[in-house]
Structure formats: C-alpha cells, structure tokens
Amino acid sequence: MPLKNSLTDLTIRFAGFDSVHAADYVFNPPHAIDCYVLLLTNTPAKFFHNGVLEAFPAGCAVLYAPMQRIYYQAHNGPFSDNWLYFATSSPAFASFPGLGRPMRMSDPEYLRRLFQLITWESSTKNHNDEILEHLLRVMYLRLMDDYAAQGQTPMQYALTRLHREIVNSPEYPWTVAHMARQLSVSPGYLQAMYKKEFGVSCIDDVIDARLRKAQEILSYTDDSIADVAAACGYRNVEHFIRQFRKAFGVTPAAFRKARRAAPLTDAPRSGPGSAPGLTTEPTALAGGLSRTPTMWLRPDDAAAPASEEDFHTPMDPSTDNSSP
After folding, report:
1. Which CATH number fits domain 11-151: 3.10.310.10, 1.10.10.10, 2.60.120.280, 3.30.420.40?
2. Which regions of the chain carry the CATH code 2.60.120.280?
3. Band of the pLDDT at 51, cuts 50, 70, 90?
C-alpha cells in the first residue's frame, strides 16, 4: 500500500544506529509499547515468532505495530541493531502485511544507512520533519519490496544480491568465474540463471553499470578520461572508450562536451542508446545512497585483473563473454 498522504502526524520518538549489546542481551519490555517499532539487526538474533523462539541471521528487519508483543535476544555473541520508535496514523503502516515478522533484507546496508540518516536528522535541534518523512517513506517502500520478494527461491535471492552488488560497485574486477564461485554454482549455470532472471547476461549488466557510472562522472567532474575509466573498473582506457562509443554512439570526451553545452535542466538517460545532453530524464546515481558497499560478493583478490587480457590488449567485447 503506497504512502499517498503526507505523514503530517509523524513523530520520531527514539532512533538508534549501530547499537551494541552484550551476548546475553534480551529485549522483553514489561509493558506494551504504544507506537511502531522498526528494527534492523546487524548480527544474528532470536525472535519470538509464531509462538516459538526462532533464530534469524544478521540483516533481518521487523516492524512491530503499537501494543504488539516484542521479544528478541542476542544469538551466538554480542548483539548489534538499528531501531526506530515512531508514531503515525498512516493506514499504510497499520496494513503492512508483515507486522511482527522478521524478514531477511535483500540489501541490509541500504536500510542501515537510512537508519543512520534518520538518527542524525532526528537528533538535530532544528530537524526537518519533511526530510524525516521522506526517509521513512523510502524505508517503508524498501520493506514492502522485500516483503513481496519473500517468496523467492534461494537462487533468486542470491542472484538479486549479486545484481545489487554489480550496480553498487561496478568498478570491481567482475568475472563470471568470480561470481559463480560466490554463488557456489558453475559459470554456465550462473549465466543461464542470470539471463533468465534479469533478461540480460551478468557481464552485460556489469558493462551497463560501469557505463552509467561513467556518465555520471563525465557529467559532473573534470576528471581525465583515463581517471574515469579507472574509476569505473577499466584497466585499459582504449577498451573503455570503445565500449562507451558502442553504447552511446559518441566518445566519452564528446559526451562530456555535449553535456556541458546542454541546458542545466538536462540530464542523460541512464542506459545504452541515449543521446547525450538531449534528454531530460534524470539519471539515478548508481548504488543509491553514498555508502561503503557490502563486500560479500567482492572477488577474492581485489587486485586481480578483470579478464585474461587484463584490459591491456584491445579486444572486441562481443567476443569475450567471461568479463566486461
């Protein structure tokens, strides 16, 4: 249920970010809490759920309704969490289908940063209620998206996380072999399942994410073309220029020149095939909120080359399906 109406009655009562507790920590309030409580775990925890005490991994979120029973505790070591106590009459929260149910989040780091922003903003003396409202809207939509995805198979969940990591960190030296090893599947199986799930190969996804990041850097910085290529994961600037020209029909330098000559209201479309400086569709910064990305899918050796050629020898990307 979308948040169509303004949360004019929103009240942030308490907010906490990266709180740390002892290994014997138990949260079992003697009295019911008369507002919503939203929790995100950074470490494993046990929740009272469906009448039993059940263990859940780190990166789980749960939204409790006012007066709903709350019980959780540390599991296998010290406990760390992010939490928010808030009051609102918005029917969207009251009708949230997963109230009181811990959910594994597809991108817990994204949600954790939202907790951080809300904690910072709500703690300022002259905090902006509109900012807090928008942050809570984003948090609600993220919860709804992940609730809807709870029916995913383990492979679909792993592929979704892989896709998010590619978008968040396209500069890493991604290869099919690295990705397959992280998901404990064969390279061929990974490529087939990724194409089935997202309609594009995993390597094409890396290339698209790198080129979208290049668009942003070219549009808003004076970095050299070589520096832009390196920031986007390319070891060879000629290879970067060739892929950029193939996707957009112009060189990176020509793209930058067109962007600088375009009206300030213009923005390039994020994706191959768009004419630079001639569209007004805004491009979202790759990775969303600025943050240190989760590293669970980072290749084992960050210094490893992205391909056998290590991008030092010019090659046709259409003939190499193992790396960007």
Report:
1. 2.60.120.280
2. 11-151
3. confident
Percent of the chain surpassing pLDDT 90: 56
pLDDT digits (tens, 9 = 90+) for 255-278: 999 988 765 444 333 343 333 333
In whole angstroms, how large is the CA radius of gyration of the chain?
A: 22
Average pLDDT, integer, range 17-38: 95
- The Cα–Cα gap between 12 and 35 comes to 10
CA 32 from centre of chain: 33
| pLDDT digits 0-9 by tens, 101-122 | 999 998 899 999 999 999 999 9
**Which candidate, 101, 164, 99, 107, places its Cα nearest to that of 138?**
107
CATH architecture, range 156-319:
Orthogonal Bundle (1.10)
What is the amino acid identity at position 67? M
Alpha helices in 42-174 (DSSP H): 91-94, 108-123, 129-148, 154-168
Domain with CATH 1.10.10.60 in the chain: 156-319
DSSP letters for 243-312: HHHHHHSS-HHHHHHHHHHS-TT----SSTTPPTTS--PPPPPTTSS------TTS-S-TTS-SSTTTTT
What is the rounded distance in angstroms from the CA atom of residue 272 to the CA atom of residue 292? 27
CA 38/CA 275 separation, integer angstroms = 43
Please give the Cα distance from 185 to 200 (Å, whole number). Answer: 18
Q: How confident is the model at residue 130 (pLDDT cuts 50, 70, 90)?
A: confident
The set of residues, in sequence order, having a beta carbon less than 8 Å from that of 193 and lying 6+ positions away, is 155, 159, 185
Which of 39-53, 196-210, 243-257, 296-310 bottoms out in mean pLDDT, i.e. has the lowest?
296-310
Q: How many CB atoms lie within 10 A of CB 217?
A: 18
